[in-house]
Design a protein that fits this description.
Elements (H helix, E strand, L loop, with lengths): L1 H8 L5 H15 L2 E3 L5 E3 L6 H4 L1 H7 L9 E5 L7 E6 L10 H15 L6 E6 L3 E4 L4 H5 L3 H19 L5 E5 L1 E3 L2 H8 L2 E4 L2
Parallel strand pairs: 4-5, 5-7, 6-8, 7-9
Antiparallel strand pairs: 1-2, 3-4
Helix pairs in contact: 5-7, 7-8
């Protein structure tokens, strides 16, 4: 646990350098094949590719219509079994929008069924912000029934996080507002910078 916390305290490198390192690690570790329908399949019976290749797809498809806003990184070596859920919605400061929530829900359900994961760490790649709460610009465009469904989806996501079978840690390196604070409170432990 102390090794994980020490690792979180290390100053972060530039975003592009982190992405390049993540891409190299992903390409080295996960050899994959594409099916005819475009879904990816892992070689050697490893865990789900949707979770493992998110950083690679983000790197290669930065102009994609639906960008990756929540990513997953599995640590290796003596930190094997630790999964980092990386929130990377830079422009909206990790605001909880429809795409963000659906990607987070997909990752959390994947992690809840993964027996190789021993600890899950939620952290932000946006400097100075853990999570800015609900995306109010997106919410302003919703009618009442859409807004009610969205709020219900947020509540179920926080319940999913709270019910994960593995210990969860919120590594808060910045502000956590509204729903962002709820996300941190849904975790078992919270660590924060000054």
């Amino acid at each position: 646990m102390t090794a994980v916390l020490r690792r979180l305290a290390v100053p972060r490198c530039s975003l592009w350098r982190c992405l390049a390192v993540s891409l190299r690690e992903t390409q080295r570790l996960y050899h994959h094949v594409l099916n005819r329908d475009g879904t990816r399949v892992l070689a050697e019976g490893r865990s789900s590719l949707a979770a493992c290749c998110r950083s690679e797809s983000r790197w290669q498809h930065t102009e994609a219509q639906e960008s990756v806003e929540v990513d997953l990184k599995r640590l290796e070596g003596q930190d094997e079994g630790i999964a980092e859920v990386l929130m990377c919605r830079h422009r909206a400061r990790n605001a909880l929008g429809l795409v963000f929530v659906s990607q987070m829900r997909e990752l959390v359900s994947t992690l809840s069924n993964d027996s190789a994961v021993r600890v899950v760490i939620f952290r932000s790649l946006v400097p100075g912000v853990f999570c800015a709460g609900a995306d109010l610009k997106e919410r302003a465009r919703m009618n009442n029934s859409e807004s009610d469904l969205f709020v219900h989806g947020l509540r179920s996501l926080m319940t999913q996080i709270a019910l994960l079978p593995t210990p969860t840690i919120a590594a808060m390196d910045g502000v956590a507002l509204g729903g962002g604070l709820e996300l941190a409170l849904a975790c078992d432990l919270r660590t924060a910078c000054e």
